[in-house]
From TrEMBL:
Transmembrane segments: none
The name this protein goes by in its record: Peroxidase
Role of this protein: Removal of H(2)O(2), oxidation of toxic reductants, biosynthesis and degradation of lignin, suberization, auxin catabolism, response to environmental stresses such as wounding, pathogen attack and oxidative stress. These functions might be dependent on each isozyme/isoform in each plant tissue.
Native organism taxonomy: Eukaryota, Viridiplantae, Streptophyta, Embryophyta, Tracheophyta
Domain Plant heme peroxidase family profile: 50-352
PROSITE patterns documented for this protein: PEROXIDASE_1, PEROXIDASE_2, PEROXIDASE_4
GO molecular function list: heme binding; lactoperoxidase activity; metal ion binding
Amino acid sequence: MALVKVALSLTTLALISSTFCIAHPGFGFGFGWGSGFGGSVGGGGGLSFGLFPQFYQFSCPQVDEVIMSVLEPIIASNPRTAASLLRLHFHDCFAQGCDASVLLDDGAGVVSEKRSVPNMNSLRGFEVIDEIKVKLEEVCPGVVSCADVVALSARASVVLSGGPSWELPLGRRDSKTASISLSNSNIPPPNSTIQNLITLFQRQGLNEVDLVALSGGHTIGVARCTTFKQRLYNQNGNNLPDQTLEQTYSHELRSVCPRFGGDNNITPLDVASPARFDNTYFKLILWGKGLLTSDEVLLTGRVQKTMELVKTYAENEALFFEQFSQSMVKMGSIGALTGSRGEVRKNCRRVN
């Protein structure tokens, strides 16, 4: 049994470490959406070319192994952690770019993004990032940034949940500031209309394809009652439930999420396979069982492109995996600090 576990662990690590040279020869890695990684996509400051997958090849070749050694047992015992780490990467990138600003605690000149409306009492996984960082500082002191730890942990979490891996450009540096205002204004709320979602994604340089593919990350994890309560009782201010919500599912949700109280009660975003990264999320949307308004409007928002993509990904998991991987790379380059900008924090919760 021990040999089997070792073999499985090595297989997973090999999958994550693969560079997919056929799909992405050399350092070109073009996906057709831009020429180069790093800098700010839709966030000002232009593109730079400081990110590449082999960034730690010589300075910290153990980085993937260290991250997997921490995440494998944690996710095996608590699968929800995978979704938490994936969400942490999203919320980091959408506020000030993928610079680990979301990890900073309140301090001198820093008002923590953890206090923003989307993050307060909601965002999780900080202790896991701390544990990974401590281990990396033991083997490669001052080398691997917290921003890259967040990005690598998100990828590993998807893989450990049965999803795809992707070639991940690395070399992000950590910010010395945070922005609670950008966290409040840029992260899409769960009751978003389709047009609001499109606008907020376009602000980050992400298009409708990225929107639908990245929304597929809701195939794992849970949501709090407060994020979908209005769909059950007062969707349009008329004290009536959302008519797009399948009735049996709506009834089941009311048992978890009462009209009054219970705001922190949780239920899976993907009720059919909540711990497995697959395309069931899209099938559920077609069946009227998308949990959040922001899930269901991908189909019911009357935007032809997003409607078609929901149907396509529901039918073709491989295509969803491929596009999700590409969109994760694209999102992971938003506002990346490279070169001499930023720093490599010793402790992810505070600047050096």
